[in-house]
Design goal:
This protein is an alpha+beta fold and about 120 residues long. It has helices spanning about 5-25, 30, 60-80, 95-125, and strands at about 35-40, 45-50, 90-95. A 3-stranded mixed β-sheet has the order 1-2-3.
Length: about 120
Protein backbone atom coordinates (compact mmCIF):
# COMPACT_ATOMS: atom_id res chain seq x y z
CA UNK A 1 0.00 0.00 0.00
CA UNK A 2 1.44 3.31 -1.02
CA UNK A 3 1.29 6.25 1.29
CA UNK A 4 -0.70 9.36 0.59
CA UNK A 5 2.52 11.27 -0.14
CA UNK A 6 3.63 8.68 -2.71
CA UNK A 7 0.22 8.75 -4.38
CA UNK A 8 0.48 12.53 -4.66
CA UNK A 9 4.00 12.32 -6.09
CA UNK A 10 2.93 9.65 -8.59
CA UNK A 11 -0.03 11.75 -9.78
CA UNK A 12 2.10 14.89 -10.03
CA UNK A 13 4.79 13.08 -12.00
CA UNK A 14 2.18 11.64 -14.35
CA UNK A 15 0.70 15.07 -14.98
CA UNK A 16 4.06 16.79 -15.46
CA UNK A 17 5.46 14.10 -17.77
CA UNK A 18 2.29 14.21 -19.88
CA UNK A 19 2.58 17.98 -20.26
CA UNK A 20 6.28 17.74 -21.10
CA UNK A 21 5.68 15.10 -23.76
CA UNK A 22 3.19 17.35 -25.52
CA UNK A 23 4.97 20.69 -25.12
CA UNK A 24 8.73 20.27 -24.69
CA UNK A 25 9.66 17.01 -26.42
CA UNK A 26 10.20 17.31 -30.17
CA UNK A 27 10.27 13.57 -30.92
CA UNK A 28 6.95 12.71 -32.56
CA UNK A 29 7.32 9.05 -31.61
CA UNK A 30 7.24 9.91 -27.90
CA UNK A 31 4.21 12.15 -28.35
CA UNK A 32 2.12 9.15 -29.47
CA UNK A 33 2.35 7.60 -25.98
CA UNK A 34 -0.71 7.66 -23.74
CA UNK A 35 0.49 7.67 -20.15
CA UNK A 36 -1.48 5.49 -17.77
CA UNK A 37 0.28 5.47 -14.41
CA UNK A 38 3.51 6.28 -12.60
CA UNK A 39 4.86 4.04 -9.85
CA UNK A 40 7.78 5.49 -7.85
CA UNK A 41 9.99 3.59 -5.48
CA UNK A 42 9.81 4.74 -1.87
CA UNK A 43 13.26 6.33 -1.99
CA UNK A 44 12.40 8.15 -5.25
CA UNK A 45 15.36 6.60 -7.06
CA UNK A 46 13.31 4.90 -9.78
CA UNK A 47 9.92 5.42 -11.39
CA UNK A 48 8.09 3.15 -13.79
CA UNK A 49 5.95 5.11 -16.21
CA UNK A 50 3.29 2.89 -17.77
CA UNK A 51 1.97 3.87 -21.18
CA UNK A 52 -0.09 2.52 -24.04
CA UNK A 53 -0.55 3.43 -27.69
CA UNK A 54 -3.55 3.67 -29.96
CA UNK A 55 -2.04 1.19 -32.41
CA UNK A 56 -0.09 -1.93 -31.44
CA UNK A 57 2.24 -1.40 -34.41
CA UNK A 58 3.53 1.86 -32.89
CA UNK A 59 4.66 0.22 -29.66
CA UNK A 60 8.36 -0.28 -30.51
CA UNK A 61 8.80 3.14 -32.14
CA UNK A 62 7.11 4.89 -29.21
CA UNK A 63 9.33 2.99 -26.77
CA UNK A 64 12.44 4.15 -28.62
CA UNK A 65 11.21 7.75 -28.56
CA UNK A 66 10.43 7.62 -24.85
CA UNK A 67 13.79 6.04 -24.02
CA UNK A 68 15.55 8.76 -25.99
CA UNK A 69 13.58 11.55 -24.25
CA UNK A 70 13.74 10.17 -20.69
CA UNK A 71 16.91 12.02 -19.63
CA UNK A 72 15.63 15.33 -20.96
CA UNK A 73 12.29 14.80 -19.21
CA UNK A 74 14.08 14.01 -15.96
CA UNK A 75 16.23 17.13 -16.14
CA UNK A 76 13.22 19.37 -16.82
CA UNK A 77 11.34 17.72 -13.95
CA UNK A 78 14.31 18.49 -11.70
CA UNK A 79 13.93 22.20 -12.42
CA UNK A 80 10.12 22.22 -12.11
CA UNK A 81 9.34 19.95 -9.18
CA UNK A 82 10.30 20.57 -5.59
CA UNK A 83 11.59 17.13 -4.71
CA UNK A 84 14.80 16.15 -2.99
CA UNK A 85 15.50 13.65 -5.76
CA UNK A 86 13.97 13.19 -9.19
CA UNK A 87 13.59 9.49 -10.00
CA UNK A 88 15.20 7.80 -12.95
CA UNK A 89 12.38 7.20 -15.44
CA UNK A 90 11.75 3.82 -17.01
CA UNK A 91 8.94 3.64 -19.55
CA UNK A 92 7.05 0.35 -19.76
CA UNK A 93 4.25 -0.65 -22.08
CA UNK A 94 1.08 -1.37 -20.08
CA UNK A 95 -0.12 -4.90 -20.79
CA UNK A 96 -3.15 -4.75 -18.47
CA UNK A 97 -5.56 -3.74 -21.23
CA UNK A 98 -4.44 -6.57 -23.52
CA UNK A 99 -4.71 -9.10 -20.70
CA UNK A 100 -8.17 -7.79 -19.81
CA UNK A 101 -9.34 -8.22 -23.42
CA UNK A 102 -8.03 -11.80 -23.52
CA UNK A 103 -9.70 -12.62 -20.21
CA UNK A 104 -12.96 -11.09 -21.39
CA UNK A 105 -12.82 -13.18 -24.58
CA UNK A 106 -12.31 -16.35 -22.54
CA UNK A 107 -15.19 -15.48 -20.22
CA UNK A 108 -17.44 -14.73 -23.21
CA UNK A 109 -16.62 -18.09 -24.79
CA UNK A 110 -17.38 -19.91 -21.53
CA UNK A 111 -20.68 -18.05 -21.21
CA UNK A 112 -21.69 -18.86 -24.78
CA UNK A 113 -20.91 -22.57 -24.19
CA UNK A 114 -23.04 -22.57 -21.03
CA UNK A 115 -25.88 -20.81 -22.85
CA UNK A 116 -25.79 -23.37 -25.65
CA UNK A 117 -25.88 -26.24 -23.10
CA UNK A 118 -28.93 -24.71 -21.41
CA UNK A 119 -30.77 -24.33 -24.71
CA UNK A 120 -29.98 -27.89 -25.83
CA UNK A 121 -32.20 -29.89 -23.38
CA UNK A 122 -35.17 -27.54 -23.77
CA UNK A 123 -35.27 -28.07 -27.54
CA UNK A 124 -35.58 -31.84 -27.11
CA UNK A 125 -38.80 -31.46 -25.05
Amino acid sequence: MTSFRMQRINKELLREISVLLQSEIKDERAKRAILIEVDCSKDLSHAKVYYTTLRKEDREEVQKGLDKASKLIRSILGRQMHLRQIPELRFEYDLVEEKARKLEAVLDSIKSKEDSKKEGPEESL
